[in-house]
Write the structure tokens for this entry.
Amino acid sequence: MHIPDGIISTTAAIGGYAAAGGMTWLSLYKIKQKYGNPRNGIPRAALLTAAFFAASLIHIPIPPVSVHLVFSGLLGVVLGWFAFPAVLVGLLLQAVMFQHGGLTTLGVNACLMGLPALMAHRLFCLRSLFGRRKPLPNAILAFLAAFSAVAAGAIMAALLLIYATPAYFDAAAEKTAVLTLSFAHLPVALLEGTFTAMVVLFLLRVQPTLLEADQK
Amino acid sequence: MINGAAVGSAESGSLFGRWETRLKLPGLIILVFSFSLVQDLRLLPLLLLSSMIIYRLSALPFTCLVSRVRLPGFFLLAMAVILPFWSGQTILWQFGPLALRLEGCISLLLITVKFIAIFMVVVALFATTPLPLLTRTMRALGIPWLLTDLLLFSYRYIFQLSSDLRRTHTAAHLRGFKGISLISLKTMANVTGSLLVRSHQQAERVFQAMTLRGYGNGDQALPEFRPVVADYLLLAAAVLLSAAIVLAQIFI
């Protein structure tokens, strides 16, 4: 969900920047703690950022509409604490090159996709309890991580659009809108979960070191 | 799919293209935030007029604006369907269960004009500033190096990934791949995984080569800061306009 400029209130936009600034600071702090030299993690993070950028341009038909993948779950799974800065940079690139999203809403959009990505990372870390190289727990956790990342992002976006836009909905309409927007994202969340689980299974077979973000 | 020339295409010719980026970036960011603050309908003509003047000063063609409005425009279209019929209590016109509401129409007008005004300024900013220059300016303005390096590397990998994706797509088609669909999800996942593995290996090799050539040992060269009087005048105009909009919003 890329919220464009002019839709939400300035308070929400500034609040989004403050929250994104805080999360970026925390992510950079954690990255510096985990990596001896944080520069070593940049190629992987940049690559996934580019993939995140490109994913929003590829549409998959789910009749009667078509949807695009978000990759926030996959970002969390592969990048760990690098996921939040990667989302921020990816969104900035999308805003600069295509005006997809917005400049005043960059902070809000980064929180809507970056926080779920970090949540996906924490969820995927649970695989250490079930066996790090076992395919089934990896696939299930990858599915849950990506599914919940999209679902959380959609619910946060729905709440934000209802409470931070200059619109006047009654309580019943608000509830309906949140439910409608959340359920509209259900097929995307299922698709994203399945796709991420498949990619994780592939990486587990071919290059499992790409899934070791929690081990650095 | 991705056109790098779209960024910074007009950087050299126009007044905006020549505006010192270290002053242009904060000046226009302050301006768009003041635009987003507006809630008074009487200020909307001022927003539109000032954004049109700014876009004119950037000397960008109108087609540049149209080509970029498609993606954010979808979002606005969705708002146009929802707001007038569901937001508010005062009914202007009713046809069966469908009721056009005054508050929703006002909200839509406010959102649309603010969106157009900010959109024009943002296009003028980014289309006259090449991304590498924008990145170095952000570094000069105090953004952490990890973010600016990540931005530059990502910008580079977008083109590599795009080229790899095109090659893989051609190869898959030659092997009978019918195109993107739900049925081919597993094939797409495998293609994505192999692209990630291959690109990651290449990215690591490039990174090691860069490290051997001195990347990371010492600060990156920042762009020269040589503003002229016109740069400061443009910044002052942007700040004064922002202040006028904020004050008008508070006191009128």
Q: What stands out?
A: The beta strands of chain B are 91-95, 98-101.
